């Protein structure tokens, strides 16, 4: 039975109760345990859950929908197009505009995490540099 509910049974059960309210308290899972529906019918309902429900969010690890992904992709493409247009029509004596950074997406590190990671890498590099200098330079 748990195989039908997958790796996130609470999210699937919440989705089932939300999208199939006619099965009474507890939703379709409770109806299955009461013997009102078969395991096959429960599996069909689980497989038919919408791509923007709680189960899909739990599996993906974020709440972005297809529209969110399309919007951020469009934003990035427009920024690239705008920069290309500016660079194509700039004064030849001026340097080209830098290419824009891509927008944040789920799974990317947050800007504050990136800053902390960069500072840590810089501290490690400095420590390695000083260790090498202490071994090579006289009086170290």
Instruction: Please report the number of helical segments.
Output: 7
Oligomer: single chain
Q: Which value, in Å, is the CA radius of gyration?
A: 27 Å
Helix % is 55-70%
Average pLDDT number: 90
Largest sheet data = none
Q: Report low-confidence residues grouped into runs of 5 or more.
A: none
- The structural class is mainly alpha
Report the count of strand segments: 0
In N-to-C order, the SSE pattern is HHHHHHH
Q: Which band does the percent of strand residues land in?
A: under 5%
What distance separates the N and C termini?
A: 68 Å
Identify the overall geometry: elongated
Summarize the structure.
With 140 residues, the protein is an all-alpha fold. The chain is built from 7 helices and no strands. Among the domains are: 2-60, no CATH class; 109-140.
General description of the model:
It is built from 7 helices and no strands. With 140 residues, it is mostly helical. Helix 2 (9-19) packs antiparallel against helix 5.
Topology:
Elements: H1 2-5, H2 9-19, H3 27-33, H4 39-47, H5 54-60, H6 66-88, H7 111-136
Helix pairs in contact: 2-5
List descriptors.
7 helices; single chain; mainly alpha; 140 residues
């Amino acid at each position: 039975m748990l195989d039908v509910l997958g790796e996130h049974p609470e999210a699937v059960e919440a989705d089932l109760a939300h999208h199939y309210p006619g099965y009474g308290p507890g939703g379709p899972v409770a109806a299955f345990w009461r013997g009102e529906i078969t395991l096959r019918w429960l599996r069909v309902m689980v497989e038919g859950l919408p791509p923007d429900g709680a189960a899909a969010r739990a599996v993906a690890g974020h709440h972005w929908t297809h529209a969110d992904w399309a919007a951020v992709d469009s934003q990035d493409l427009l920024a690239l197009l705008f920069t290309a247009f500016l660079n194509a029509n700039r004064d030849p004596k001026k340097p080209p505009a830098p290419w824009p950074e891509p927008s944040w997406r789920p799974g990317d590190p947050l800007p504050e995490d990136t800053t902390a990671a960069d500072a840590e890498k810089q501290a490690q590099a400095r420590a390695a540099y000083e260790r090498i200098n202490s071994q090579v330079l006289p009086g170290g």
